[in-house]
Amino acid sequence: MKITSVKSIQSQLILYFTIAILVPAGITCTVGMKLIYNQIINRAETKTISDLNSAREIYRNKVSHIESITRMTAIRSLIVAALVERNISFLQKDLPKTLHREKLDVLTLVDREGRVICRGRNPLVYGDDLMSDKFIERAIRTRQVIMGTDIVPQDQLSAESPDLATQAMMEITSTPMAKARKERLETSGMMLKAAVPVFDDDNEFRGVLLGGILLNRNFEIVDKIKEVVHEGEVYKGQEIGTATIFQGDLRISTNVKNKDGTRAITTLVSEEVYDAVLNGGNRWVGEAFVVNAWYITAYEPIRDVNNRIIGILYVGVLKQPFDDLLWNTLITFLGIALIGVILIILIAAQQAKKISQPLRTLEEVAGKIADGEYTHEVVVKAPYEIEHLAGSINQMAKKLEIEKHELEEWGNTLGKKVQERTDEIKKIHSQLFRSEKLASLGKLAAGVAHEINNPLTGILTNSSLLLEDLEPEDPRREDAEIIVKETIRCREIVKRLLDFAKQTKPQKKLTKINSLIDNIILLVRNQTSFRSIVIEKNLSENVPDILVDTDQIQQVFINIILNAAEAMTKGGTLTIGSRMSDDDEFINISFTDTGPGISEVHREKIFDPFFTTKEHGTGLGLSISYGIIEQHGGTISVESSIGKGSVFTIQLPVKTAEGEEK
C-alpha cells in the first residue's frame, strides 16, 4: 500500500483539528451570547421595575406634600375665622402669599355648598360653583381629605388663572408607532390635588380648601426621579435614565430629549403601551423605542380618585450600554476562538510533520526492499507504533537477506545430486512461500498501522517534549500543560470507554434515616451560615431501617439543608421531620424553612439541570438530588409561596432487602 503524501496528512490533521475547535467555539458563542443577553436584559428589566417603584413613591410623596401644605393652611385659625366671617379681603391677601410661598398652582377656598370664597392665584374671581370638581364634591360629602391626580378641564383652569390654561394647552406632535388620535390639540391639564375639609373651633364643617400643582410643562417630579434613581449618570453624552408623566397617551412632563436637545413633550406613547396600560390597566415592561433611542422601559397606569385610568408613569434606562457590553463580549469570545484556531493549526501542522517524515522514510526503505536491496536498516524517532513498524520492517529485511543467501547456496549445490536438488528445490519453494507471506504481512502491518494510528499519542509525546523545553515563566507553558493534561484525559477516556458506558448503581445498605439526619445536623450546625438559624427536629420514632445508599442520600439531605440556609440570609428556623406515609409504604422526610419562598415560575423549573437563581450557582444540585432519589425508587417535591417559606418533601420506599419491600 502506498503511503499518502505529507501534504495530505497535514491538510487532514489541520482540517479535523480546525473543525474540532470551530464547532464547539461556534456553539459556545451562540449559546453563551444568548444566555448573557437574556441575563443582561432580565437584570435591566428588574432594575427598571425597581426604578418605577421608586418613581411611584416620589410621585406619591409629591401628592402627600401638597396635602400637608393644604392641611396646614386649612387649620390656621385666621383662615378659619375669615371663612366663617366671609372676610374676603383678608383671604385675598393671605391665600396668594401662601400659594407663592409653597409654590402651588392652585389654592382655592370654597364654602360648604361648593361656592368659591377666594382663589389664591386669581383672588378677584369668586362666587362661582365648584361642585363639579370631584375632589371638592367628595370632600364636602365625606368630610374627609381627598387627594390624588385629576384631569382639569380648560374652563376650570381659566377660572383659576389664564396662565394655567395656557400652560396646559398642547399641540400634539405626530409620533411614529403611536395610536391614531383625531384631536390635535389638548386643552385640559393633569393636576395633583388635595381637598381638605375646614372646621371651625366647634368642629362644625365650614368648607373645603383645594390645593394643587399642574403637571403640564412642570418638570420638577421627572427631574427629581432622574436625580434620585439614576443620579444623573451619562453614557456617551446621553443621559442613561429618563422619566415621563403622560396625560392619557400624551407626554406632558418628561426629561426624554429630542435630537435638538429640547424636552420631548407633546409626543405620544406607542400603541402597544397604549393598549397594555391605558386599555388593559396593566404594567408594561420591555424594550421600547422612545422618541429617538431604544430604552429598557417600565410603564404603569395613573388613576384618579374614582380609580379611572387617566395617565401613565414611565421610567426608562438607555439600552445602548447593554448592547455595547454584549458586542464587546461577543468580540472577546470570537477573539479567543480565533486564537485557539490559530494555535490548533500550528500544533496540527507540527505534529503532522513529525508523523509524516518517519512514514516517508519507511516508504523509501520498503521500496528498496521491494527492489531486492535488503541491507538498509530503518532508524526513526517517532511514536511507539511507527518505531515498532520500523523494527518489523528491519526484521523482515534481515530474514529476506538470509533467505536470499540460502537460495544462492542452494543454487550453487543444485547440480550435485538430483535427489538433493529436488529436496532443496522443495525447501526453497517452501522458504519462498514463507518469505512472500512475511512480505505480505509486513505491508499489511504498515497499512494497518497507518490506518489505526492514533494522533493523540503523537500529540502527547511531542507536547510533553515541548513542555519540558519551556521555561517555568514562559507564557506558553500553561497552554502546553493544558494540551498534555487534556490529551492524557482523552487517552484515558478511550481506554475506559466501556467503564464509562456503565451506570453506577447505588451501593445500598440498611440505614437508620433518623440517625443519618442527626449526624448531618451535627455536621452543619456549627458552620457560619447556620449561626443565625435555629434547627428543629420532628423525627418519628417508628421509622424503620431502610435499604439506601447512605452517601448518596446524605448528599441529597445536605444539599437541601444548605439551600435552605442560603435562602434564610437574615436568620430563621429550619424544621426537619420524618414520618411514615399513610399506607406505610414510604418514609416521608420534610425540610421546612422560613425563608422568602419560591415563586411559581421558579418552582416549575427548580429541578431542571442548569436552572439556578444564585449568582454563582451551577443549577445541578437539585437536579442531581432528583436523580438520586429517583434511582432509589422515591420522589422529591417542593411546596412554597412568596413570603411563607418552602417545604421540600422526600419519599423513600420502605425496603429491608434488595427487591423486597417491608
List the helices and strands and how they pair.
Blueprint: H1 6-74, H2 77-85, H3 88-101, E1 106-111, E2 116-119, H4 134-142, E3 146-152, H5 154-160, H6 162-168, E4 170-171, E5 185-186, E6 189-199, E7 205-214, H7 220-230, E8 234-235, E9 238-239, E10 241-247, E11 250-254, H8 271-279, E12 284-290, E13 293-303, E14 309-318, H9 320-370, H10 384-412, H11 418-452, H12 455-469, H13 477-495, H14 497-501, E15 509-511, H15 513-524, E16 533-539, E17 546-548, H16 550-567, E18 572-580, E19 586-593, H17 600-605, H18 621-631, E20 635-640, E21 646-653, E22 655-657, E23 660-661
Parallel strand pairs: 16-18
Antiparallel strand pairs: 1-2, 1-7, 3-6, 4-5, 6-7, 8-9, 10-11, 10-14, 12-13, 13-14, 15-17, 18-19, 19-21, 20-21, 22-23
Helix pairs in contact: 1-7, 1-9, 5-6, 9-10, 9-12, 10-11, 12-13, 15-16, 16-18
